[in-house]
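Worked example 2:
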Amino acid sequence: MRALARAIDDLDLPAVEKIAEESQEDPFEVLISTMLSAQTRDPVTAAASARLFRFARTPRTMAKLSTKQIERLIYPVSFYRHKAKHVKETCRILVERHGGRVPGTMEELLALPGVGRKTANLVLILSFKSLENICVDTHVHRISNRLGWVTTRTPDETEQALYKATDRRWWPYINLYLVTWGQNVCRPVYPRCGECVIYQECARVGVTREGATTAPSRRPSVPDTARGTKADTRRRSARPAAV
């Protein structure tokens, strides 16, 4: 796991991680952007979130937008009509039942429209600094099975299996590591196994053909003055001490 922590340094972060950094882990922005991200490419998620937050940055202001306005702002995210309804209803509930604040428990988050375990776990990890949760999306589900860590059929099954299969010190970071690696190296089709830092430990379940080796998409180096800041904490390899 530590090899992955080092390997993702300077790789492009997943969209919601970037939004969390830029908003200083604001729970509302993390919640809404994660809701929009389901089955949607990262560049689309980032652009749609930016448009929506330019119009409304709080549950109270967003609840005042019409569903049609939200649809126009978040298009072309996948299932944008359904997501617009969920966003508006979620904002109404946050205002009426939670004083305009995002709740910090799994039970309360799952009661919000359009919020499943993936979204709830990521909000708890990024915004409430939970060390007890694992966020499983399609990348984490796919790569965990490819590595041979788990043998599961659904993301929810994978989450529960990973609690048993991995050291708890890594739980809050598994999503960051595997999503970043999955977007850059361990692709769904033709994974770039020749670039993989954990190739020797990978069972390569289901891999029949490898992709060509190319340089992963990297961002500019983080300046020394930014290292150790709150925004820098999750993207650097200053993680749990050792496996």
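Residues 220-232, 235-239 have pLDDT under 50 and may be disordered. The CA atoms of residues 56 and 223 lie 32 Å apart.
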